[in-house]
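Possible race condition, two jobs.
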Amino acid sequence: MGDVKQIVSVLRFATVFSRHAELFEWAVGEMSQSWGPLAVEGEPFPFDYTSYYEGTMGKGIVKRFYAFEVLVDPSELADWKKESNAWEVACADRFPECRPLNIDPGYITEAKLVLATTKDRDHRIYLRDGIFAEVTLFFHRGSWQTRPWTYPDYADSANIPFFERCRGYLRKRLREE
């Protein structure tokens, strides 16, 4: 029988995408109020990897990654996803699209990047309340590696430096604690 060990805190992050610039500031305000100050911010980039979201979000979508200072318990991932879904609903009636804002929370450990989702697939693990988790990237031999299901924007070499900075920030914080 294995010994149960105390879980190590993780770095919470979120991906925000929209075609409305003002929604980034609004979303960061909501997230920061609930999750604490930002620690790492990625640069905005055009989300042109797929047309999947155009029907509900429109064309010209921009995406941006954010990570938060406060290290947290990963067992709360489902709560973060439910909270981010509520923020999406809260701003929806002010814009012409049915989904003007998309916020995808997750967390980073020294070994992996985990995303929350409401969509079930063969590689996802059910958490609770209709929320699933997926290991999207894993850290191996000094770099982030993809899985067959990794979304193209997470696999894009232009975005990997954000995840490297997050991992570095997490490692520094864990050493300090």
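Job #2 (started ~2 s after job #1):
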Amino acid sequence: MNVQLFYLTLLAYSVATIGYLAYLIWVKKPVWMTSRVLLIIGFLFHTASIVTRYLEAGYTPVTSRFESLIFFSWLLVAVYLAVQIRHTLPVLGAFMTPLALGLLLMASFRSKEIVPLDRLLDSHWLPAHVWFAFLGDALLGVSACFAAMYLIQETILKKKKIGPLYYRLPSLEVLDRLSYRCISIGFPLLTVGILTGSIWLKSIQGGYIDWQDGRQTASLLIWFLYAGLLHGRLIAGWRGRRIAWMNVIGFLVILITFLQLSHFQQ
């Protein structure tokens, strides 16, 4: 059942993504409204897919590449929809939905079989670690989308070639503020995710860090990158283009690490 719901999600997200991208061209409110409805319908299918898989598996379904991809995609859409409640920014959907859809498309090529949970993963630390780490990554992903929009808007202004896209994007000040707000929430969540993972590892192997584990080394690298970004902004007063580039690069590192090393099995 969870696989059928997954494909319904994939279909809804595909059409919604086309609609959000079309909105960039036509800027018609009905196009955006229809895309949003389709995205919400897809999100409900997505949620049902994850819940159904949880009931069928009997554990938090994030232990295979298929599961981790759909879970990360689900959180990205959840954060996007939460942002939309407070800030009506249809253009953000043109950046977020392709990302969420891309993860689902990659998941579609992975094994969808539910396998017995490895005894080392059978721990209450699994859901705690995963929720904090993935939610932190999702917020950093939304922040990176705001940063990408900032870079595009700044380039338009610098070249003084004011076109249709300029009027679709929020101001640089708004984009900078929203990007920072997402990081200010996402980074602490990522930190807790890393800490819970370290405590979990300690209970299994007797040490907080396994330097031979690529996931842990990459996670520390990502943490220091964002710590440096926040330090530069809060202490050194960095703003604008430099911070935006660091933000985009930081999430690209997260994404590459996630795709190469995700997650526990298969």
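The chain has two domains: 1-113, 124-266.
Logs attached separately.
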